[in-house]
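Q&A log
Question type: sequence-to-structure
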Amino acid sequence: MAELETVSAAEAIELSTGESWLVDVREPDEWEAGHAEGAYSLPMSQLAERMGELPQEATLLVICHSGGRSARVAATLADAGYHAINVAGGTMAWQSAGGVVVADGPAPSPK
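Response status: OK
Response body:
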């Protein structure tokens, strides 16, 4: 098992402006209630079927509500060969650190 890499929400905000992908693993109802601007929705419950949508070469910043689910998903992705980093504290910490949270309805279709 790969060692889990973790960053603070403030670090994730900085990293999310580059080439990394911010991957929100919360369920659709949580996404619709509010998510980090620019995030990509990939619910934890759909990870096995949709993991292939994620680029192998990108850094994946994995976020959920408070950091628990994202830690599990980041570990799974790391074990599958992705560069996945858990965002400590999740969307709550993201918002507290000044990250933009938007509520714009259902997640877009996969790329």
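Response note: The chain has a mean pLDDT of 91.
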